[in-house]
Amino acid sequence: MFCHIRGNKIKSCSMKKILIINTTFNTGGAAQIAKELFSQISPNFVVFFAYGRGLKIKNDQIYKFGNIFETLIHIFLVRFLGLEGFGSYFSTLKLIRFIEREKFDLIHLHNLHGYYLNFFMLINFLKKEKIAIVWTLHDEWSTTWLPAYRANIENSRSNQVEYNGKDVYPRNYFPFFKNFMFDKKEKLFSNGWNPTLVCPSQWLADVIATSYLNKFTLKIIYNGIDTQIFKPVDDKRLLKTKNGINLNKKIILFVAANLNDKRKGISNIINVAKILKSKDYLFIGIGRGELDVPDNVKIINYVYDKNELAEIYALSDLFCFASSAETFLLTVAESLACSTPVVGFDIKVVREIFKENVGILVKLGDDKSLAETINRLLDNGDERLIMGANGRKLVVNNYSKELFYQNYNNLYNKLLK
Fold this sequence. Notes:
Elements: E1 4-6, E2 9-11, E3 16-24, H1 29-40, E4 45-53, E5 62-64, H2 68-81, H3 89-102, E6 106-109, H4 119-128, E7 132-136, H5 159-162, H6 178-190, E8 196-199, H7 202-209, E9 218-220, H8 236-242, E10 250-258, H9 266-275, E11 281-288, E12 297-300, H10 306-315, E13 318-321, H11 330-337, E14 342-345, H12 348-351, E15 359-362, H13 367-378, H14 381-398, H15 401-415
Parallel strand pairs: 3-4, 3-6, 4-5, 6-7, 7-8, 8-9, 10-11, 10-13, 11-12, 13-14, 14-15
Antiparallel strand pairs: 1-2
């Protein structure tokens, strides 16, 4: 089969055409997953990627439709009124015309939030088209009035009252339209179309199954880890020497794209570091943000190179997370792939991973217990070795990149028959 590509259009192609849509192309967890599908999915498909925010990329199959002016207006609507999806009119119209022109066989939606898309326009357009739809849900946004995560609140409508919009994403200061937005989203998403929903965890699938989206086909496809890159090393000392780290220090690693994101609980980890300040430990944090840290904490800017990141996981003695809410903790799986055990707070999504003996969870927000657990494990090398071996085996068998691609390929083929 042969495709002739000219500009943003494909001529004389017998292969099925897929369009992936996400907020950004290069930044964020959802973008990472969407980008991998775009670049690595089966050669039997022709895949395009459309996004609204970020720098324009020179590639005939990557299409930026958003603009900064509409994004700023959209941010204002969300921050001050709580009206998500009512901005970005002309950007969304541009995307719709692109879809009409290219005549895609399947649309794969990722994050619809992020101040870049009038999702009311897009979804109503898709309802009229005979296009197969896959929607990968990277958080709980689809079932709430605005927040991406409901944390420990079980009912999305109750969250309208308890939601503290100043501290979470998307940020909102005056939730005037919370009931209006919930009703509009429920009406839009629950009727008139038939998407196949994909969740990266059983926990999120359970949330969706009790929502107004429960009438649609729901599949679980775990995010994949490249186990050829993220892998253990025979001698951590060599990597420590290479990276200029004192060989006598035991390393506790923590990672967050935004270290100032309160949901990531980095302030809890800093508290734990202060509790353990007398120990010969070094906490290494990777991510963007400004933090006031004690002497036993070293912050490294966000690491984009996966090989470099994998080395830091592999040289570490423990990986620590303190998130209050997540959909799939990719960093935990990456750490386990490197045979580095994990400690952190007991939240629903990680219980799926911790069914195996790969680390220890403590009560959410209990910094003292987290410090005690870190101290105990760092004093017990044999226990860490067992946990590390279990973690590597778990990721290879359940969260490998090969399984990730295979499962999405199978889904695409089924929908495009």
